[in-house]
Specification:
The chain is of the alpha+beta class. It contains six helices and eight strands.
Length: 237
């Protein structure tokens, strides 16, 4: 019987993701090219501490990877010790996974680059962890701009700007719902502002359209109630 892994604990292999670490990433899709990159920033762990999010600088020649040298991408590493073992132990629990994220980005392909980041594909880092020989990683567009939570902290938005932004966020969420994708983790850290427009990030626990029925569709539409994500507009007048 396998040992039960606690859901909330320190990310188990944090030491692998130190700044300056160089990576060779192998593509999962036929026809895609390998990527060589270097970790330049660490943004911490994803929901349920099942993934590590970092910023990479591409150090591969453009003709060998398809990325411009010295450009930046976001990499999200899904630790197999969590993802695979917890899927076996907790089949009924909603857990963050690269499968959910990949599915969401593929279905929302025409949203990419505007309402959500561009999805550059799924890769593998051939690095051993326990009995596993590799780590799954997805590469995403690096969105330049602050998060909504950062804007709150530094008071960068007026009440009118927040009101307009809230309308824009609801519009994006509604259009995403029309594709039977439900984000399930809308919060001020997962809304980035690029040139004043919202970009929704982190689809790690997004719903799978195959699992949607009328009952849970009604429950999931509650994420349109985003008042808790935005401060009181009246208090900013």
């Amino acid at each position: 019987m396998s040992k039960t892994i606690p859901l909330f604990q320190k990310f188990p292999h944090e030491h692998l993701y130190g700044i300056g670490t160089k990576l060779n990433l192998r593509p999962c899709s036929p026809g895609s090219l390998p990527v060589r990159a270097e970790i330049v920033d660490r943004y911490g762990v994803g929901l349920q501490r099942r993934s590590q999010v970092v910023r990479l600088r591409i150090i591969t020649d453009i003709d060998k990877s398809g990325f411009s040298p010295d450009s930046f991408v976001i990499a999200k590493f899904y630790d197999p010790l969590y993802v695979l073992e917890y899927e076996r132990q907790n089949e009924s629990v909603c857990l963050a996974s690269e499968k959910a994220e990949k599915t969401a980005y593929e279905i929302l392909r025409d949203f990419q680059g505007t309402d959500i980041p561009k999805f550059f594909g799924e890769y593998v880092w051939d690095r051993s962890i326990s009995q596993y020989s590799s780590i799954k990683v997805i590469l995403l567009e690096f969105v330049e701009g602050p998060s909504l939570s950062e804007c709150y902290h530094y008071s960068k938005l007026t009440a009118n700007e927040l009101k307009e932004l809230k309308t824009q966020v609801i519009d994006v969420i509604c259009r995403i719902h029309q594709r039977n994708i439900y984000h399930r983790d809308i919060n001020s850290s997962n809304i980035l502002l690029r040139d004043g427009r919202p970009v929704i990030v982190d689809f790690g626990i997004a719903s799978n359209p195959k699992d949607i029925n009328q009952k849970n569709r009604d429950e999931l539409t509650d994420e349109l109630d985003i008042d808790s994500t935005f401060p009181s507009l009246e208090s900013m007048q």
